[in-house]
Automatic annotation (TrEMBL):
Keywords: Disulfide bond, Hydrolase, Protease, Serine protease, Signal. Residues 1-26 form the signal peptide. This is Serine protease 57. GO terms for biological process: proteolysis. Residues 294-307 have a biased composition (Basic and acidic residues). Residues 274-288 have a biased composition (Gly residues). InterPro entries: Peptidase_S1_PA, Peptidase_S1_PA_chymotrypsin, Peptidase_S1A, Trypsin_dom, TRYPSIN_HIS, TRYPSIN_SER. The lineage of its organism: Eukaryota, Metazoa, Chordata, Craniata, Vertebrata. Pfam families: Trypsin (PF00089). Residues 29-257 form the Peptidase S1 domain. It comes from the Eukaryota. One of its GO terms (molecular function) is serine-type endopeptidase activity. The keyword Transmembrane helix does not apply. Residues 263-323 are annotated as: Disordered.
Length: 323
C-alpha cells in the first residue's frame, strides 16, 4: 500500500490522498533525543509570525539553505530566520534573527514530483559567526553517500503523532538506503537528485512535520535537505527522502555569485526569475562541471568548528553516484 507523500513543512500540503490505514499520521524527529545545546550551530529555524515552520542551515554568513517546498516569501515582515537557537520559546542571548531579502527556489523545482527541492535564502544581514552560529560546509560536487552510512538529522519538528512540539532541538541518526531500493519502495518517486535514509532496525526513527528544509549531516558536511517522508514518519518501509545537495553545487555558486554585489546590476534580480537567467538551461539534473569555487567561502577560522575545513571522509564512506 502506497502511503501519502507527506511534505514536512508545517502547514505544507499532503500531495496525495492517504491510502494507508486511518489514523496512521506522521510527525516528528522521531526516535530521537534532545541535542546538546548549540552542538549544531549551523541549524536555522524559519518562522512565520513567530511560529517555526521549516528548518534550514547556514552555508555562508548571508545564506541559509532550505527546501524549495517551504513556501518562504522574500521581504515579508512576518518571516524570520533564527540562528543560534536551541529552545525556540525562550529568549536566548545566542539567537541572531534575520529577515529574508531573497528567497530563491531551484528553477526546476517540481511540486508534483518534489524533484529539485532546494531553496536559498539571502538574509538581510550577515550572521556573526561565533560559538553559537557557524556555517556548515557543502559536499563536493556529485558525491554520493554509500548505503549504510549513518548520518545525523536535526529539527524542531513534531515529536509525536499528535502534533507535539519539542521544547528544544532534536536529533537522531539515520542510515542511507540504496537509491535503487528506495526507488522501488517509493514506487519510482525517488530521482537521482534524492538521498534516502531510514532507521537501521524496527525502531521508528526519522524526520517528520516541521523538519522540512533541515540538514542531513555526515562528518561535518551537509549532504541532504529534508524533503519528504512516508505518512507514518520513521517507518523504514518508506524511507525519508532528502534533496541530494551535491547535485546542486554549481547552481548554489551561481546564485551566490549573482547576488554578491547587491548594489550593482543584479539589484533588481527577481529571485525565482533566476530560472530565466543565463545558465538556467544548464541546470537540469546533475549535469555541470565539478568546479569548486572556494573563493565564495567564508574566511576560515582557526581551531575546531563547523566553519573550518573538515578532514576528508573515511575511505570507503563515499562513492560517486554509485547507485
Ligand atoms: C533584518 O530583519 C530583521 C527582522 O525583520 C530586523 O529585525 C533587522 O533589523 C533587519 N536588519 C537589517 C540590517 O535591516
Ligand atoms: C535499534 O538501533 C538503535 C541504535 O541505532 C538501538 O539503540 C536500538 O536499541 C535498536 N532497537 C532495536 C529494537 O533493536
Amino acid at each position: 500500500m502506497v502511503t501519502a507523500l507527506l511534505i514536512l513543512s508545517l502547514g505544507g500540503s499532503v500531495l496525495l490522498p492517504a491510502l494507508g490505514p486511518a489514523g496512521a499520521r506522521g510527525s516528528r524527529v522521531i526516535g530521537g533525543k534532545a541535542a546538546l545545546p548549540h552542538s549544531w550551530p549551523f541549524i536555522a529555524s524559519i518562522q512565520m509570525d513567530g511560529q517555526h515552520f521549516c528548518g534550514g542551515f547556514l552555508v555562508w554568513p548571508k545564506w541559509v539553505m532550505t527546501a524549495a517546498h517551504c513556501p518562504i516569501p522574500r521581504r515579508n515582515p512576518s518571516v524570520r530566520v533564527v540562528l543560534g537557537a536551541h529552545r525556540l520559546e525562550q529568549p536566548e542571548e545566542s539567537q541572531q534573527v534575520f529577515g529574508v531579502e531573497e528567497s530563491i527556489a531551484h528553477p526546476l523545482y517540481d511540486p508534483r514530483t518534489v524533484d529539485n527541492d532546494i531553496r536559498l535564502l539571502r538574509l538581510n544581514g550577515s550572521a556573526t559567526l561565533n560559538k553559537y552560529v557557524k556555517r556548515i560546509r557543502l559536499p563536493s560536487p556529485h558525491i554520493d553517500l554509500k548505503p549504510g552510512t549513518v548520518c545525523l538529522v536535526l529539527g524542531w519538528g513534531d515529536i509525536s503523532n499528535y502534533g507535539e512540539r519539542p521544547e528544544q532541538l532534536m536529533e537522531t541518526d539515520t542510515a542511507i538506503v540504496k537509491r535503487s531500493l528506495c526507488r522501488t519502495l517509493w514506487r519510482g518517486r525517488v530521482s537521482a537528485n534524492m538521498l534516502c535514509g531510514a532507521s537501521r532496525n524496527a525502531t521508528l526513527r526519522g524526520v517528520c512535520a516541521g523538519d522540512s528544509g533541515g540538514p542531513l549531516v555526515f562528518k561535518r558536511k551537509v549532504y541532504g535537505i529534508v524533503s519528504f517522508s512516508g505518512e507514518r514518519c520513521g517507518d523504514r518501509r518508506y524511507p525519508d527522502v532528502y534533496t541530494k545537495i551535491s547535485n546542486y553545487i554549481d547552481w548554489v555558486h551561481l546564485i551566490v555569485l549573482k547576488h554578491r554585489h547587491p548594489e550593482g546590476q543584479q539589484k533588481h534580480n527577481p529571485g525565482p526569475g533566476a530560472a530565466k537567467g543565463p545558465g538556467a538551461g544548464r541546470l537540469r539534473g546533475p549535469a555541470g562541471g565539478p568546479r569548486h569555487r572556494s573563493g565564495l567561502e567564508a574566511p576560515r577560522r582557526a581551531g575546531k568548528g563547523w566553519d573550518t575545513r573538515a578532514p576528508p571522509p573515511a575511505p570507503g564512506a563515499l562513492t560517486v553516484d554509485g547507485n
